[in-house]
Design a protein that fits this description.
Elements lengths: L2 H4 L26 H13 L3 E11 L6 E10 L3 E8 L3 E9 L2 E6 L4 E6 L8 H12 L6 E2 L5 E4 L5 E7 L4 E9 L2 E8 L4 E4 L2 E4 L1 E5 L6 E11 L17 E4 L2
Parallel strand pairs: 6-16
Antiparallel strand pairs: 1-2, 1-15, 2-3, 3-4, 4-5, 5-6, 7-8, 8-9, 9-10, 10-11, 11-14, 12-13, 14-15
Length: about 250
């Protein structure tokens, strides 16, 4: 699967926001650390599933820059389905992620690439999938670290470090780390948070990775936390004759 074929689909698997306007974000003045964690865990428990769509743009990679539309379905942090489309070219990529295994269909190449999330040759896919999990997944392991940031364990030894706005209990910035290595950085626009049902949700965010030239900007146009999911959404069907390849 070439990056040229996937273009922004490479990085587009993410989300960011809801509708414009709406009720103000709830405030939580002077909560103690354990009260903050209780509020955040309860909020995440209300999500469970996610149905969302939006738009995005990729910059910083010559020959692969552009805009796209995306759709996302998530069952907690365990199962994700992400599709990327172009207004003229149609489907760019369709990815099914279960645990750390990914099946990614490239209609232009006629291939279905399978492998571990970090081994697929699609820049940004691992970062965007991890960010979906951060927003839609459970917060059972959430805890404050000595520097005041939040820590949240992820899959395969990864850990999020999150800067929290304690007034509204919303995320400001987040880093995904494996040991001391930063795998992804996300910046959430505080003024772009909106209420999606009982949950404050970021409408816009920027994702990048230190040492790599790309930058991904993402925006939600619709988000439905807790929406019912058809189990069939996590069953991928590809056209007959599609070549199956294993990621190295």
């Amino acid at each position: 699967m070439t990056f040229h074929r996937l273009r922004p689909a490479a990085l587009a698997l993410l989300l960011a926001g809801c509708c414009v306007g709406g009720p103000p974000l709830p405030s939580f003045p002077a909560l103690k650390d354990d009260e903050v964690l209780e509020q955040l865990r309860a909020r995440q428990a209300r999500i469970g599933t996610l149905v969302a769509e939006g738009s995005g743009s990729l910059t910083g990679l010559k020959g692969a820059e552009g805009s796209f539309r995306w759709q996302c379905w998530a069952q907690g942090s365990s199962r994700l389905r992400l599709t990327l489309t172009h207004r003229l070219k149609g489907l760019l990529a369709d990815a099914l992620i279960e645990g750390d295994r990914v099946s990614c269909y490239d209609p232009e190449a006629g291939t279905l690439e399978k492998g571990d999330l970090d081994t697929l040759r699609v820049p940004g896919l691992a970062q965007t999938a991890s960010l979906v999990r951060l927003l839609a997944g459970p917060a059972d392991t959430l805890a404050f670290e000595p520097d005041g940031r939040l820590g949240l364990d992820g899959a395969a030894g990864r850990r999020w470090r999150i800067l929290l706005d304690r007034t509204h209990l919303t995320y400001g910035t987040a880093e995904l780390r494996a040991g001391e290595t930063i795998l992804a950085r996300a910046s959430f626009e505080g003024e772009a948070y909106r209420m999606a049902g009982p949950v404050p949700w970021p409408m816009r965010m920027t994702v990048d990775r230190p040492g790599e030239p790309w930058k991904l900007k993402l925006r939600f146009t619709d988000v439905q936390p807790g929406a019912p999911l058809d189990p069939g959404i996590f069953k991928m069907t590809v056209p007959e004759g599609t070549k199956v390849v294993e990621a190295p």
